[in-house]
Amino acid sequence: MSSPFSAPILARAYALADRDACLALFDGNVPRFFAPGERGDFERFLGGTALVSPYRVLLRDNRIVACGGFLIETGEEAHLCWGMVDRALQGQGLGARLTEARLAAARATPGLRRVRLDTSQHTQGFYARFGFQVVSVTPDGYGPGLERWDMVLEL
After folding, report:
1. Per the CB 3.0–4.6 Å rule, which of 48, 63, 76, 154 could disulfide with 113?
2. pLDDT of residue 2
3. What is the pTM of this model?
């Protein structure tokens, strides 16, 4: 039997042909990490913004196993958006690899000084390990039982 890390992880820019695979990742992370009502927002994002923003997919064995990116909100600030990992593969370092790639791209973007994100209580500790600081917490911010944690990282 092969190790879960035997196949190399490849990263590339999102393409419209990746839409269904990314939606499947989203669906696999509902309701723990995303509220069901967010799916339409993600679909719209994938149909337009993801094609022009620094949105990436990670592949293993030619299968998309993670996706995520960031949007530049002002000349100095970006917002991590729509980061997710195949639910069956969580805990294997893919989320860290995806986050590191997004932060490296943000650091390489001229003029960016900070990165913001909003996440749930389930993943805020993960982002804290990268240096993100909590700005605010909104109970039920994404839906019943799903808090919204706003965090920021100064680059």
Report:
1. 76
2. 42
3. 0.85
Q: What is the CATH number of the domain that holds 20?
A: 3.40.630.30
Average pLDDT of the residues in 29-45: 91
Full domain range(s) for residue 85: 9-116
The count of structural domains within the chain is 1
Using alpha carbons, select from 146, 154, 143 the residue that is nearest to residue 116. 154
pLDDT grade for 6, boundaries at 50, 70 and 90: low
Residue 122 within a domain: no
Q: Is residue 14 part of a domain?
A: yes
User: Is 63 within the bounds of a domain?
Assistant: yes
Question: Which residues are CB-neighbours of 92 under 8 A, at least 6 positions away?
Answer: 4, 5
- Listed in order, strand segments (DSSP E) in the chain are 9-13, 55-60, 63-72, 77-85, 114-119, 133-143, 146-154
